[in-house]
Each structure stands twice: as C-alpha cells, then as structure tokens.
TrEMBL record:
Its cofactor is Fe(3+). Transmembrane segments: none annotated. Residues 32-101 form the Catechol dioxygenase N-terminal domain. Residues 106-281 form the Intradiol ring-cleavage dioxygenases domain. It comes from Rhizobium rhizophilum. The lineage of its organism: Bacteria, Pseudomonadati, Pseudomonadota, Alphaproteobacteria, Hyphomicrobiales. PANTHER family: DIOXYGENASE, PUTATIVE (AFU_ORTHOLOGUE AFUA_2G02910)-RELATED, INTRADIOL RING-CLEAVAGE DIOXYGENASES DOMAIN-CONTAINING PROTEIN-RELATED. It holds the Pfam family Dioxygenase_C. Belongs to the intradiol ring-cleavage dioxygenase family. This is 6-chlorohydroxyquinol-1,2-dioxygenase. Keywords: Dioxygenase, Iron, Metal-binding, Oxidoreductase.
Length: 290
C-alpha cells in the first residue's frame, strides 16, 4: 500500500488514530509512552473541549515549567512528584515481598558526596534544634543482620530546610551522613528533630497547585538510602508519628510501616527524642536494577 493510501482523514473521531498511524513502530520505551500519552491528550481535549485561548494557557504553563528547570532545579520532577506519578512509578517497580522495607521517592535534596561519619557521632554540625538519637538495624527477610550495609541519611533542620537550600545559613553537609553498619548490622547517630516543610512553591508548579488549594506540605521525616552487596538498594523515609499532618503528604510517600514514634527520654541528663528504625532488605533479583 502506498504511504498516501495509509493516511487517515483527520477529524474528531479519528484524531488519535490519525496520529498513531504516522508514528512508526519503535522499541524505544520513551517514544512508545509519548505516543500513548498523545492518545490520552486527544481524549482529554474531546472531553474538556478547551478553546484555543484556554489551550494556549496550558502550553504557556508547560513552557514556564521548562524555563524553571535547570541543573540545580528540576521543575518537571516536582510536577511528577506532586501528581503522584513518581510515587506510582516507584510503587510499580519496587514491589517487594511482605515484610521488606518499601521504597519511596528520593527527592531533590540527596547528595551523593555525603561524607562518612563514625557510628555514634552527630550529623548536626550547628547543634540547632531538639536532640534526636537514631538507632537502626538492618536485616534480611530471614531476620539475619546485614553486616555489610552502608546507610546514607539526610534530613531538613528544625526549621524545615535542607542544608543545600540554605548554603549561607547552614554548614556544608549539615544533617547528612554516611554510616557503615557494625558487625551486628546496627548503626546509631545523633541529630536534631526535623520539622515538616513545604515543597518549593515559588515556581510555576507550586504556584498552580497552591492556587488550586492543593497541599504542598511534607510531614517531618528522615531520608535513607541503604545499600549492601547482593541486596536491592532501599531508598526510603521514616516519618515522625507525632506529626499531626501525616495524612497530608504532598508526595504520597507515607506508608504505615515507615511511621515511627520519636519518643522523648533523658539521655546524659539531657531531654532527647529517640527513634528506632529497622530496614529489611531483599536479595537482588534478576532483571532488577535496584
Ligand atoms: C523531599 O522529601 O526531600 C522532597 C521530595 C520531593 C520534592 C521536594 C522535597
Ligand atoms: Fe525530604
């Protein structure tokens, strides 16, 4: 059949098909996803029937999102996070056996160059905030300690800001640390209680969502990446059970097994909160990247 004979007349009923017929067969996953997404966009336009002016506003918003993104800020990732797409991709790709620690999104504030710290030391370099002791242990699904585990943690300060959001106010690498588990698969460090915070609301995505009354709040949490040879890497959060806004996480990251009490106790004569965390790792499975 000639190429002209394959052309489908474009009208409201055939628009998606007309587009798809021009899109060659490809194995490229991004191209296939985009092609399918266009079909959904056509459906959406038929359902909402925007005027050219209304559609232009949508395009202007998407343009602004692009302009707000650079190597330090990724507004598209924020968009994906806020609409639950990042959490859904994580949920589908890192489904784990019962009892294993679930993955949640990593977020933009992780630093791969986090320095190693001694077990039992403090990651609070300015001592600003209410003391918190974090005690953790890492085990496999059989309850055996994972003694080769490496733990990277990062968190917001008592005002709800990460060190890389306030380079002039917080010391470099404040509230970050890389630890190696001991011979029992355990680790311990001192820090301060993190506050909940709002995801960046000063860009086009934050502005649009805030205007629509959409919550931008994240309840107080600690971030962790736990890795060990032969195991799937865990990227997860631990949430403070006392945070009254646990149910409002803007990024859909709260799972019941990730919520822990930050109990208050007296340690060395000082009022200190303590949280106990347990990470359960699964052995690396074939065909999985993490
Ligand atoms: C975070 O938890 O650090 C975070 C994740 C996504 C967007 C903003 C912040
Ligand atoms: Fe965070």
């Amino acid at each position: 059949m000639s190429r002209a004979a394959e052309l489908i007349t474009f009208n409201e009923a055939t628009s998606a098909e007309a587009f798809a017929s021009r899109f060659g067969a490809t194995d490229d996953a991004t191209a296939r996803l985009l092609s399918a997404a266009v079909g959904h966009v056509h459906e959406l336009i038929k359902e909402f029937r925007p005027t050219p002016e209304q559609w232009r506003k949508v395009l202007d918003f998407l343009t602004e999102v692009g302009h707000a993104s650079d190597e330090r800020r990724q507004e598209w990732v924020l968009f994906s996070d806020l609409v639950g797409a990042s959490a859904l991709v994580e949920e589908i790709n890192s489904r784990r056996p019962a009892g294993a620690t679930p993955n949640t999104i990593r977020g933009p504030f992780f630093r791969a160059d986090t320095p190693q710290r001694a077990l039992g030391s403090s990651i609070s370099l300015d001592d600003a905030g209410e003391p918190l002791l974090v005690e953790g242990h890492i085990e496999d699904l059989d309850g055996l300690p994972v003694t080769t585990a490496e733990i990277i943690t990062w968190q917001a300060n008592a005002e709800g800001y990460y060190e890389n959001q306030q380079p002039d106010l917080q010391p470099e690498f404040n509230l970050r640390g890389l630890f190696r588990a001991d011979q029992d698969g355990k680790f311990q460090y001192h820090t301060v209680r993190p506050a909940g915070y709002s995801v960046p609301g000063d860009g086009p995505v934050g502005r649009l969502f805030a205007q629509a009354g959409y919550p931008l709040h994240r309840p107080a949490h600690l971030h962790f990446v736990v890795r060990a040879p032969g195991f799937e890497t865990i990227t997860t959060h631990i949430y403070d059970a006392d945070d009254p806004r646990l149910g409002e996480d803007a990024l859909f990251g709260v799972r019941p097994e990730l919520v822990q009490p930050f109990d208050r106790a007296m340690i060395d004569g000082k009022p200190t909160s303590c949280v106990s965390v347990r990470f359960v790792m699964v052995r690396a499975r074939q065909g999985r990247s993490k």
